[in-house]
Here is the input.
Amino acid sequence: MAFTYFFRDRQTLEVIRDFALPKLRSRRYIHIWDAGCAMGPEPYSLAITLCENMGSMLFRNLRIHATDVDESNQFQEIIREGKYRYDQIKSVPKHVFERYFETNGDEGNVRIKKEIRDSVVFTRHDLLSLEPVRKNLSLIMCKNVLLHFQPEQRIEVIKMFHHSLHDEGYFVTEQTQQLPQEVEHLFEPVVSHVKLYKKKAHC
Ligand SMILES: C[S@@+](CC[C@H](N)C(=O)[O-])C[C@H]1O[C@@H](n2cnc3c(N)ncnc32)[C@H](O)[C@@H]1O
Here is the structure.
């Protein structure tokens, strides 16, 4: 099972907060897809970052569609419960821990508060089906997943991402992932230090 932990890539979260969120917050509903979310620390870290920087009204209208092929068949339960071990939250800043986690006397585990749990919905999904989880998405996050695919599969998945974003939508991937030449024309880079791209609409 893929081991991930909270706030694993704080720089990417900060770039989403500073460059994508200001543009997205004018929308009434914000739908985000975290594709290849593993057991949940990544979508929950994103949800916490957005909650910290959105009004509570807008946050209630945010959904993070967290998906994974989930070969272990355990992610749904783990994500729904929102319970994690202490070693998975070691990078969580103290004020964030105090605000968004509860201990409930459960030794060795902490639980994410309901306010955050309610913003993340998990579905089992295989990216290679090339079926988007929904259309009109504001942001797609797909990190440390595309590298497992064949070059041709990677191209088709990125085309599917482009198609499922609304015209002002964003795509973010890991820093070491280069956009294949075949799909470069579909996106424009937003910053140089994180692979955050804005959709080019008329392609
Ligand atoms: C290294 S983990 C990355 C987790 C998280 N995105 C992160 O960066 O912390 C890769 C994840 O991709 C998922 N994955 C692999 N192939 C997939 C596919 N075809 N469709 C959906 N998810 C897939 C795996 O199950 C695993 O949870």
Q: What stands out?
A: Residues 2, 4, 8, 36-38, 42, 68-69, 126-128, 143-145, 148 surround S-adenosylmethionine (CB under 6 Å). The chain has seven helices and ten strands.
